[in-house]
Amino acid sequence: MKQDLQKILAFLSFAERLKFELRHSWLSNGRQESVAEHVWRTSLMAVLLYPYLEQSLDMAKTLKMIIIHDIVEAEAGDVPVFEAETPEAKKKKQEKEKCAIENIKTMLNSSSGDEIYELWFEFEEKRTLEAKFAQALDKLEAQIQHNEADIKTWLPPEKLRIFFKLDNYCVFHSSLIQFKELIQEQTFNKLRAAQMDIEQLKQEALHIDKPRK
């Protein structure tokens, strides 16, 4: 047991990197957000939104998935989603993250390592209800954080993602669709307050990312 606990302690020191690995998201006080902070609020969202789901799911499994889904970034680093949309960039990101999760599994070399490994791939493949819920919350939390940040921190792609990028993540639950719509309205109000043309931005987004039917 002592050897296992030593491995866990070493892994926790490795995971501490998520406290200083920064995302391209800014807080309402002007400080840049860490990966760990994003993971914490995504977990809180799961607890608060779970009662409103129409289908039952394994909440413990969902929370585990949310907690570990960004663990690879302790090694691979955080890559903003809009920087990994080309096939080449996406492939490079996936390769780095798969290498990281393999190393994490080896680092722990235990049933806990196996579980983290399996849950990470389940989240990425988005086949189960738990994975779909976790991924939806991951994307929604990121948009909430953008809404709370100074709009001067937004890059051009971030002004377009709100129109269609969240839709397919939320389509499987009416409560998530409604929650997404509330977040979208927050975003639209922020854009309007910055004197931006919502319809023009929507047309730009439509040209880049036509919604699926």
- Our measurement of the CA-to-CA distance between the termini, rounded to an integer number of angstroms, reads 53 Å
How much of the sequence lies in strands comes to: under 5%
CATH architectural group: Orthogonal Bundle
> What is the number of helical segments per DSSP (H or I, 4+ residues)?
11
Structural description of this entry:
This protein is mainly alpha-helical. The protein has one domain (2-208): Hypothetical protein af1432 (Orthogonal Bundle). The chain has eleven helices and two strands, in the order H-E-E-H-H-H-H-H-H-H-H-H-H. It has helices at 2-15, 35-49, 59-68, 73-76, 87-108, 111-125, 129-148, 161-164, 167-170, 174-193, 198-208; strands at residues 22-26, 32-34. It has a two-stranded antiparallel ribbon with strand order 1-2. A hairpin with a 5-residue loop joins strand 1 (22-26) and strand 2 (32-34). The longest helix has 22 residues, at 87-108. The radius of gyration is 18 Å and the shape is globular. The model has no long low-confidence stretch (mean pLDDT 93).
